[in-house]
């Protein structure tokens, strides 16, 4: 049995290598070769972001290999994997389901028809009447790319006159800003039944960039968890995701749960590692294995009561110092990765790509975990010096 994985990174490839099947990786031309792993059948290059040439590759190269399934855990590979699976008649996520999760406006319209209570008020950027009505109702509006990721180009707009013309297009989704706490929910579905592997509480900047994730979510009690799980199950039923992984972001305000977005893949930002640390389940392996009949399994090793990822940020400028690996008072640092050094430029924090590194930690409880996150966030781990502009 052969599983085709589209666009794997090193972590996904390592997880795939533990499955009891042959794994064939399809990656973009010019990508650095993956490390060898057990059960890897090979690695092929194809431009899966260009549909016509990729479908020709599917017909000419993949079809003769008779794979059992085609999947992807990377955002840019999801639609290609779905199209390949449909074309080959093998296991995969249906293309229409992937489109309903990747296209934020399409997701809003699906929910409006099937689960409207999960939506905020919204409008397409090119719907002049809808945009005007959204602002007329009062309160700030969030503008985001219909197909965006990583908090890129997400903006809070207070007044209609502040919305630029280049955001008044079909490529932009506008929606009422929703108050409350934000959570990421990891789910594995099978035959329409949704199993919840973990809920992380998010910390974000005023510009919507994520700077921390804590699992389990400190502010959710048992009733709150059930409410979030019910909402996510309704969402997945509405978009038709019956099988495979999903990562859904929601906000809660009192008893109301509002869906922010969803994806048919595990979350990024080290969230699969938080699932593994707190449950023992290799989330990446489970997110691949469902397609070839391999269910989740608990890996060997200790399970932590709580875990978190924290992202390093700094003021724009040029890096002057990078602190040594810290030792939080109430947690254990299990991973520390700083991507800058003195002299490097630091841009304004506009998206996830502008963060400067990540720490992963475990703690004996959610309160200790939250305290450790606050401690690390407050430390001047990277300092910068403002760069003076030269004369014009």
From TrEMBL:
The keyword Kinase does not apply. Keywords: ATP-binding, Ligase, Nucleotide-binding. Residues 108-292 form the ATP-grasp domain. Gene3D superfamilies: ATP-grasp fold, B domain (3.30.470.20). Pfam families: ATP-grasp_4 (PF13535), LAL_C2 (PF18603). This is ATP-grasp domain-containing protein.
């Amino acid at each position: 049995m052969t599983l085709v994985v589209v666009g794997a990174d090193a972590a996904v490839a390592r997880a795939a290598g533990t499955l009891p099947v042959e794994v064939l990786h399809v990656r973009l031309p010019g990508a650095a070769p993956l490390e060898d792993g057990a059960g890897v059948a090979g690695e092929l290059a194809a431009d899966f972001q260009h549909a016509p040439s990729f479908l020709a590759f599917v017909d000419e190269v993949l079809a003769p290999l008779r794979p059992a399934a085609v999947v992807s855990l990377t955002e840019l590979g999801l639609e290609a994997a779905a199209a390949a699976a449909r074309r080959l008649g093998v296991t995969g996520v249906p293309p229409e389901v992937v489109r309903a999760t990747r296209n934020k406006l399409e997701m809003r319209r699906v929910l409006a028809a099937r689960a409207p209570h999960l939506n905020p008020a919204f409008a397409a950027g090119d719907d002049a009447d809808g945009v005007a009505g959204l602002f007329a109702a009062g309160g700030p509006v969030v503008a985001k790319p219909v197909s965006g990721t990583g908090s890129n180009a997400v903006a809070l707009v207070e007044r209609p006159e502040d919305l630029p013309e280049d955001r008044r297009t079909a490529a932009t989704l506008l929606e009422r800003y929703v108050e409350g706490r934000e959570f990421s929910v990891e789910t594995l579905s099978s035959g329409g039944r949704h199993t919840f592997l973990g809920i992380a509480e998010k910390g974000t900047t005023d510009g919507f960039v994520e700077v921390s994730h804590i699992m389990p979510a400190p502010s959710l009690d048992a009733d709150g968890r059930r409410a979030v799980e019910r909402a996510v199950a309704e969402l997945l039923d509405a978009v038709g995701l019956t099988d495979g992984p999903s990562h859904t972001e929601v906000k809660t305000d009192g008893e109301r749960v509002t869906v922010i977005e969803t994806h048919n893949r595990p979350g990024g930002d080290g969230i699969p590692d938080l699932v593994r640390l707190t449950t023992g389940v290799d989330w990446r392996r489970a997110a691949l294995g469902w397609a070839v009949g391999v269910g989740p399994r608990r890996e060997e090793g200790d399970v932590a009561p709580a875990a978190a990822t924290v992202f390093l940020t700094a003021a724009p400028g040029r890096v002057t110092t990078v602190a040594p690996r810290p030792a939080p008072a109430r947690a254990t640092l299990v991973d520390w990765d700083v991507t800058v050094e003195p002299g490097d430029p630091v841009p304004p924090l506009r998206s996830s790509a502008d963060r400067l590194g990540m720490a992963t930690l475990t703690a004996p409880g959610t309160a200790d975990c939250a305290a450790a996150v606050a401690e690390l966030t407050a430390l001047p781990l990277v300092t910068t010096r403002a760069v003076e502009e030269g004369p014009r």
